[in-house]
Specification:
By secondary structure, this protein is mainly α. The chain folds into 2 domains: 59 residues; 58 residues, Orthogonal Bundle (434 Repressor (Amino-terminal Domain)), CATH 1.10.260. The protein is 61% helix and 0% strand. It contains 7 helices and no strands. Helix 1 packs parallel to helix 3. The radius of gyration is 24 Å and the shape is rod-shaped.
Length: 135
């Protein structure tokens, strides 16, 4: 037997049931997640089941890392994205900016966010103030 390998029929049976392969599309991800869920729902796992779960988890993680690249945005670009995400209008931010014209100027780049704006935006959106500073 080669170093690092174990011959265990229970593990081999798991491999035969759902052979782990690199995930390349959404359908494969869903199928892998179903197998993972069924193992987790089982409760206490054998060593073979834990090893198999680790392999599937690694494959899911690698796929998601490639697929879900979240853009690194800050400042006004982040504010615009948050407005869309939370389905907000400019007038919803009047308590922070005082007037809709100031909001328009900030969003268009004619005016910068102040430290007061940043502090209030961070509180409003429940995020760190650092995300509103331009890099």
């Amino acid at each position: 037997m080669t170093l690092g390998t174990r011959s265990n029929s229970a593990y081999i049976e798991l491999l035969k049931t759902f052979p782990p392969r690199p995930i390349t599309k959404q359908e494969e991800l869903i199928a892998s997640q179903k197998v993972i869920d069924s193992l987790i729902d089982k409760g206490e796992l054998t060593t073979d089941e834990q090893d198999y779960l680790n392999v599937l988890g690694t494959l899911v993680y690698e796929y998601e890392e490639k697929q879900e690249q979240i853009p690194d945005i800050h400042g006004v670009e982040l504010l615009k994205a948050l407005l869309v995400e939370f389905d907000l209008r400019q007038k919803d931010l009047i308590p922070i900016f005082k007037t809709e014209s100031i909001i328009s100027e900030v969003l268009s780049g004619r005016r910068n966010l102040t430290t007061e704006h940043i502090s209030k935006l961070a509180e409003f959106f429940h995020v760190s103030p650092a995300v509103f500073f331009e890099e």
